[in-house]
Amino acid sequence: MLESQNWIKTENVSDADLIILNTCAVRAKATDKVYSALGRIRRAKKESALLGIVGCVARESGSDAFRRIPELNFVLGPQSYHKLPEIIKNPETKLLNIDLGGLEKFDELPQMTKSPTVAYIPIQEGCNHCCTYCIVPYTRGRELSRPFDDIIQDTINAAKTGAIEICFLGQNVNGYKYTDETGNLYKLSDLIRETAKLPEIHRIRFTSSYPTEMTDDLIEMFGIEPKLLPFLNMPIQSGSPRILKMMNRPDNLDNYKNIVKKLKSVRPDIQISSDFIVGFPDETDEDFEQTLNIAKKIKYINSYSFKYSPRPHTAAAMMSNQISEQIKTVRLQRLDSQLNENQREFNTSCIGQEMMCLCEGLDKTGRHLVFRTPYMQQCIVEKPNTKIPPLQKIKITDANKASLRGELIK
Ligand code: SF4
What we know:
Helix content: 25-40%
Bound molecules: iron/sulfur cluster
CATH class of the largest domain: Alpha Beta
Number of helices: 13
Largest sheet: 5 strands, mixed, barrel
CATH superfamily of the largest domain: tm_1862 like domain
Structural class: alpha/beta
Radius of gyration: 22 Å
């Protein structure tokens, strides 16, 4: 959008005429970082440069952001990015736009003229699940799904302009549901089926999924659509039904395990990743042991683990029995060590296998190419002398907990 108005990128803050911080409010640490970055930027920027924040911290802070950082020119919530051209035209006015509007921004944002090999396509925003620790329903509002045809148009455009992989995005991506004017209902499985017809697209994935929205039609797609990668992020957050209840998350672990079982039966090579929160209010040692057990049992790979941090406007922030930082730190270390062990085990099991991998570019040394396997592992390969297509068959030759080594199959 800005490029179409002849703005060009600079790497140097002191050269910039416009500085925008795109922000995330999901954890307290991320929010704190926004304000310390703003403090650094306001000292380094040209006096005339416009400065703004967009995204969830903007939505959460509202007008308080202007009080904390008087140099700010605009504060735009996640549904208002498309207002940028208007703001740039009127640099004198301070603009606060944190309304939870609809999805109009997608109609206003121009189509990309060049896509990266992995195109991230938002299909829905917001979330109707009110997990008691989560700020997303407050910053992003209720769930809204984009029209099916608009999304397919975006995937066609991405395919025609260089994308090889499509990653569908949404806070509750598998909750995607869109009914058109004639009453036809479209779900995520329909988007996958339609996207897989594009010859340019070889890999499809989606994130982030809610366990109970893994409906049978979607599970079946893993069995019938080879372009859908055998890798799924399906956060469990905790292995304790008591804590899951307090989190207002699905607390029937048998149902969760049953979904994993069904996925494995249609796609035996599928791997599951999860997000975990340790140190949720009132979490006992016993609750935490249940989390460790499930991490071990399901053998999650590529997972994310965090210490619980109280977020404004959430029920969990008001709960008694908040856990001390010290206990959270110990629990996080123990969980991370289990998750690392899972990863090391899985990576080692890949040695000797041949996999189609997608090139991400050169590593820092410039002597190796970095690829992504179908399970999102990083695989390092010696750079060949000739130019190669981005999708390559690679034989895995070595592994550690962080990455794989491989060689191109001629
Ligand atoms: S499902 Fe995810 S986005 Fe929605 S409230 Fe829960 S944690 Fe937040």
